[in-house]
Amino acid sequence: MDQKKILIAGFLALLLVILVVIFFTSGGNEKIKQSRELTPPELKTQPEVPGEKKKIALFFLSEDDDLLHPEEKDIQAKASTEEEASEAIEELIKGSQSALVSPLPPETKLRQIFLTKEGMAYVDFSKEIQDKSLSGSEAEMAAVYSIVNSLTYNFKSIKKVLILVDGEEAETLAGHINLSKPFAPDYSLIAQE
To answer: Which pTM value belongs to this model?
Structure first.
């Protein structure tokens, strides 16, 4: 009986090692280029009066490099940060108005954003964010940080972002980036212009 348990435990340990090796080696030679500057580009902000337009910066990919590039958009100033953050994510899903590339599938729907007093944003997307996402660790990293940086940069009360899919915690979007923990912003992924 004990020998059988030892064999099963050994098999499970070997399987775990194989899965870890596969997880960390899949994705090949993809690397994310990082800019030297660790602060986001400056954006002129306007007073926030409900009903007026507010300028925000959303972050998209470029075909020229692996960095996120800011694009200014106008949203309606709203009574709550949750409403403004929701509109910002909706605009991010719609995509760029210039030649930049959206890392999020256009079929994606924002289900809800919930903010805590501690600065955590729970952002719940429809399953299309997984089903239709671009493949590769680089594309997945761009999708995650496009969301995270767009929210944390524009809304100072948002410090971290946890991405949900269909109301549930998801392991990954496309098999590479662990989504079980919240993300802090990483402004080193933003191109400095």
So the answer is: 0.73
